[in-house]
Specification:
The protein is mostly beta strands. It contains no helices and 5 strands.
């Protein structure tokens, strides 16, 4: 799970994928839980390391 959020509000979007089949989802308007690692929306490298997964509806 990768949270890409505004650092102050911790609101943004989340990426969740399966490492075995590379299917996943994108969830918008999420608030990252306290203590969860996040990346800033303004960081151009925020999605670095996220595999090119197939988005499932």
């Amino acid at each position: 799970m990768r949270y890409i959020v505004d650092p102050d509000s911790r609101v943004g979007y989340g990426l969740l994928w399966c490492g075995a089949c590379l299917c996943g989802i994108t969830v918008s308007r999420v608030r990252a839980p306290d203590g969860a690692p996040t990346r800033a929306l303004s960081d151009p490298e925020a999605s670095a390391g996220v595999p090119d997964f197939v988005r499932v509806d």
